[in-house]
Specification:
Helix content: 10-25%
CATH topology of the largest domain: 2,3-Dihydroxybiphenyl 1,2-Dioxygenase, domain 1
Radius of gyration: 16 Å
Order of helices and strands: EHEEEEHEEE
Number of strands: 8
Strand content: 35-45%
CATH architecture of the largest domain: Roll
Oligomer: single chain
Structural class: alpha/beta
Largest sheet: 4 strands, mixed
Number of helices: 2
């Protein structure tokens, strides 16, 4: 049987290096590779075992669509699990991160919040208690 697992997330950014730095500063990401791909700076970074790749407009590519924080079809957001929502929100506020929504008690054992990342990326935080 074929096994599938999430391998990486690609982020397209107007400011590649600044975006990678933000993830390092906010989530303690570790940069694992820097280079160029199809005319764009590319930075790979890792956050607790999950790989992210950030790059800009590629050679021959149409101008990317303007980012929006509005809910959308397709990839709406990605999420990080946290072990203490209140501490996470307080830490992010101290780093001047824009808290978009929450924390919200979705159901017993699940609390979520949304924050804004670079280029208007919506990032969910979730705290799961058994």
């Amino acid at each position: 049987m074929i096994e599938y697992r999430c391998d990486h997330i690609h982020l397209k950014s107007t400011y590649v290096e600044e975006t990678a730095k933000w993830y390092c500063d906010i989530f303690d990401a570790e940069i694992t590779f820097e280079g160029y791909f199809k005319g764009s700076k590319v930075v790979y970074f890792n956050i607790n075992g999950m790989d992210f790749i950030v790059f800009g407009k590629l050679d021959g590519e149409k101008e990317p669509i303007t980012a929006s924080l509005r809910p959308m079809y397709g990839n709406d957001h990605f999420g990080f699990e946290v072990n203490n929502m209140e501490e996470a929100i307080e830490s992010l506020k101290n780093k001047d991160v824009n808290i978009l929504e929450g924390p919200i008690n979705v159901r017993k054992g699940l609390k979520i919040a949304y924050i804004e990342g670079p280029d208007k990326v919506r990032i969910e935080l979730s705290e799961r208690n058994q």
